[in-house]
Amino acid sequence: LGWGRPSSLLSLQEKKIFAVQGPYPIIRRLLRARGWVERKLPCKSRQLKQQPGDQKKQQLEKRAGGGGDKQGEAEPNPLGRAQPSLDTTEPLHHPRPHDNIKGEGEEEDKKEDKEQCSEDSDDIHDLMSSLVQDQVPNFLWTIRLSNIDRELLPRIEVVNRFPRLYALCTKEGLCQSLQNLPWFEQVDLNTFFPRCYRLGFMDEQEAFIEDFCLTAARSLLKLALQKAGDRPVGTEQRPKPNKVPGDHDSHSMLSTAQLCSPLYPQLVEEALEVCEQHLGILGHQDIDRNTPSPCRTCIAWDRFLQEYYCVAHEGTRPVLSREQREQCKDVLRRLKEQLPQLGIEGSLNVWILKPSAKSCGRGIVCTTRLEEVLELARSCTGSSARVCEWVVQKYVERPLTIFNTKFDIRQWFVVTDWKPLTAWFYRDCYLRFCSRPFSLCHLEPARHLCNVSIQKRYKTLQPDPRVPPDKIWSNTQFQAHLERLGRADAWQQVIVPGMKAAILNALRCARDHVGSRKGSFELFGADFLIGKDFQPWLLEINSSPTMSPSSVVTRRLCANVQRDTLRLVLDRKDNPTCSIGAFELLYREAAVSSCLSVGLQLEVTGSSLKNP
């Protein structure tokens, strides 16, 4: 007691009292090593609450109960409305958007809660913590900002979360924010973000239907060229691939009799007509004359799509003349000059459906059928008060793979201020592999969703012996792989600059909608997919990215990024020249001086209007 009390008093005088809410033992150890004293939170709900009735002391009290303020988690039904989980006590509804964002780390919060409660028990830290129980922390690292009392929060000097991140850290919010990119940068959104639509809004749903049809027409031209080069032109059907248990096949809605029947002879001709009209619109030829939208022509799209499904998913071969073959090549060449995503969209028209505000890959499904997407859309429209439940995004059908296995990149960055915007990029990152070889014949999660929480269900599966068993690589391992491919330059010259630009574009678009608070900062995790040309494609941005190690690589990198984040937001305040580890400045907006109206007097003059 003789040593604990002076240390606590010294920490109080130096404003070195911290609180941690969530599975962050590294943060706790690093702060204690700096001489900080922890104001421990209740083990169950871990809610920081201001005690009412005592305005002098502004004490922190425990919130009774085991997290009863949490809302029931809704389990998504891909072809219907979201269904509440069995243990929910709340009605199924959507709270305010910024209260419904689920960070990745929250998934580990419950299972590590017991570990934190027992950590460092009965030692000197418990004693020092008890001496500062009535003090407001100077630093808070929390997994959920909503767990903190709203009256108490402004009194905490440094907090690791920003409020109202809906515009950046939900699929629907990011999709909406990036649509405003032309107001901030002369950059084409389609060069780094796969096409995305919010199904809860009718105008975007109509735009998606048109995009789906146009993509089907382009895909048909690609397939016609591919199949015409394989065998003599005709109408054939390839055998279906072997079904793997749990697979979601790109199945056809047509009967066997329909599949064996000849294709509509004008199918390729109609696809060429649609693509020509689309080229006209892309070239702004519809400004001076009444060019109809390709999806409002005389083409019977229901029949066209069914015929396309035959070609794409059942192996039927379209009729293609020599003249049409040359026309297909010419049209696709001209479309490539206008459409940045033509190279990644493939030929099977696969789209990915995502719940708007969920993380860790929950509820995500892939589909190749327009009717399946529309069935889901009908379940989430009709109420303007509800936030959009689902977004649909073009699936990258031609990703870069490693050992024929799909992967994505988790890239960290920190925002230390929104006004002026100040962001820091972390030079280290890691790759997450799928558990089965990449294939578009089967659309199950093991092949297409790289989230660790999804892939841990397939621990017994190994796509290739060269893929590590924990399915994680560091960026240095990836760079070594690129060197073996003869593209060592791709990392520094293409991938990293592309990720930096995409992150900065997203931040600029979302900053006016994010709650800015001086003293706050946040560590984010952006997910990127790499195309065959090594261009990175932004998939989503996660708040509160998981820090729970799932491998040897993430154990090291997650510890490092937490250490360097504290260096950036704490040590650098006292010593601007101190090391900030692997962080580098991504962007610092120049401060804008306010305009002072010196000597300017404004007045409104006029007369009232009288009733006649």
Please write out the topology.
Layout: H1 4-13, E1 17-21, H2 25-33, E2 37-38, E3 49-50, E4 60-61, E5 74-75, E6 83-84, H3 106-118, H4 124-131, E7 139-142, E8 158-159, H5 166-169, H6 171-178, E9 196-198, H7 202-228, H8 256-260, H9 267-282, H10 301-313, H11 322-338, E10 351-355, E11 365-367, H12 370-378, E12 390-394, E13 401-402, E14 405-418, E15 421-433, H13 445-448, H14 452-455, E16 472-474, H15 475-484, H16 490-510, E17 522-530, E18 536-543, H17 552-574, E19 583-588
Parallel strand pairs: 1-2, 1-7, 7-8
Antiparallel strand pairs: 3-4, 5-6, 9-12, 10-11, 10-12, 13-14, 14-15, 14-17, 15-16, 15-19, 17-18
Helix pairs in contact: 1-4, 2-17, 7-9, 7-10, 7-11, 9-11
Question: Can you put this structure into words, describing what you see?
Answer:
By secondary structure, the chain is α+β, with helices and mostly antiparallel strands. It folds into three domains: 1-41 and 121-159, no CATH class; 166-192 and 398-588, ATP-grasp fold, B domain (D-amino Acid Aminotransferase, Chain A, domain 1, 2-Layer Sandwich); 195-228 and 263-395, no CATH class. Helix content is 33%, strand content 15%. It is built from 17 helices and 19 strands. The strands form five sheets. Strands 13, 14, 15, 16, 17, 18 and 19 form a seven-stranded antiparallel β-sheet that branches. The chain has a four-stranded parallel β-sheet with strand order 2-1-7-8. The protein has a four-stranded antiparallel β-sheet with strand order 9-12-10-11, sandwiched between helices. The longest helix has 27 residues, at 202-228. Residues 51-99, 112-120, 230-248, 250-260 and 382-386 have low confidence and may be disordered. Pfam families: TTL (PF03133). It comes from Cettia cetti. It catalyses: L-glutamyl-[protein] + glycine + ATP = glycyl-L-glutamyl-[protein] + ADP + phosphate + H(+).
